Amino acid sequence: MSMKIAAENSPEFPMKTKVNSVVIVREYNEERDKLGVEEIERRCETGQRGKPTLVTDLMGDPVCRVRHFPSHIALVAEYGEEKEIVGVIRGCVKTVTTGGSNFVKLAYLLGLRVSPTHRRLGIGTKLVQKLEEWCKQQGAEYSYMATDCGNEASINLFTRKCSYTKFRTPTMLVQPVHAHYKPVGAGISIVRLPRKSAETIYRRVFANSEFFPKDIDLILSSNLNLGTFMAVPKKFVPRWDPKTGILPPSFAILSVWNTKEVFKLQLKGVSALKYAFCVGSRLLDAWMPWLRLPSFPDVFRQFGVYFLYGLHMEGKHASLLMKSLCAFAHNMARDDGECGALVAEVGAKDPVRETIPHWRKFSWAEDLWCIKKIGAVDEDRNERCPPSDWMKSRSSTSVIFVDPRDI
Ligand SMILES: CC(C)(COP(=O)(O)OP(=O)(O)OC[C@H]1O[C@@H](n2cnc3c(N)ncnc32)[C@H](O)[C@@H]1OP(=O)(O)O)[C@@H](O)C(=O)NCCC(=O)NCCS
């Protein structure tokens, strides 16, 4: 159930900007604001002339990136007498682990955009502040955001103006979907887990990680979740029943999230030569799959992405099992027909990082997550010793669970 502020009761926050014009920050209203927000998204995506740009199509739903959280909201900034929509931000609140089995209520702020013609007027800052107020009303104790390490404007806004602290730097790994299938290792079985078994296993193996969501059951039962899969040495399969909750001595596990129902991507601004090279590599790979060319998918038309999450491995030959599992996920994406890439995001020192196939050129070495304490921590929530201060305590784990709804 959505915990959004009802549109008619939504508070309005007049403010004076540096140019002395009135800006109102209020809750997004689909009927009134959809076109205005789509226009901002479009204007924010205009890349540098002559450079390739990855364009996101939110498929007519500007709230799509937070819709899958039970508690979510979008705010817009309205400018001047014309009430032009010049800014937007989305947010949600969820309960997650902080490492060591403790839970906190955490706000996630995302999709902040200010129209290029209205920047440096304090509008972005105001949107963040108003969203934080809403998150506090929902009981959030911490708030975090994720950005590209090179996004100076966003980093300055959050760290200098809004007192966020640089916190974690997970790695985004991107693998294109090739025209050929990838081989799954001999002697390895891929088993699809029943939802309940997947939940039990995840709650156990990610108990001490950071950012593991308490409502993992909701994620696993979402129609965007294409399944949870485990790679197990074939010799264990006859003796192992996933429903018992007992784990085999060696295994790798991951789940596949279908983001193409939420947004689509498209690469624009590529030179004719690069375009021809990419199309050529694809054709060759399709005609001669035995060459196993690392062909380039057709990313010049809109394409979808499968997000791999909940990646964990244990036991002997675990990395081989994880590689096979990733190959299996790749083949799922290849069969989909509309999927151009597989993406995974993991902690910078997570052992699975080295085993996930990816193209370095398209992977972000460091995504930056910034965090801020925005409310008092509810100490009764944690049976064990409550988290003293998540931001100050040194991370006890290298494992970050990246919620597929955050992507
Ligand atoms: C990032 C963004 C939202 C900032 O919006 P804005 O309304 O211009 O931000 P503000 O006016 O509130 O700026 C607040 C502070 O952020 C920093 N900042 C903003 N733009 C900056 C820039 N281009 N370079 C460096 N610092 C910048 C400054 O510290 C600024 O304070 P100052 O103006 O007193 O120096 C806007 O540039 C944008 O929409 N960018 C494209 C989308 C994006 O990157 N979103 C963030 C995703 S997390």
TrEMBL record:
Pfam families listed in its UniProt record: Acetyltransf_1
Xref: Gene3D superfamilies: 3.40.630.30
SUPFAM superfamilies from the UniProt entry: Acyl-CoA N-acyltransferases (Nat) (SSF55729)
Matching CDD domains: NAT_SF (cd04301)
Signal peptide (from-to): none
Alphabetized GO MF terms: acyltransferase activity, transferring groups other than amino-acyl groups
All residue ranges annotated as the N-acetyltransferase domain in the record: 23-208
Protein name: N-acetyltransferase domain-containing protein
Classification lineage: Eukaryota, Viridiplantae, Streptophyta, Embryophyta, Tracheophyta
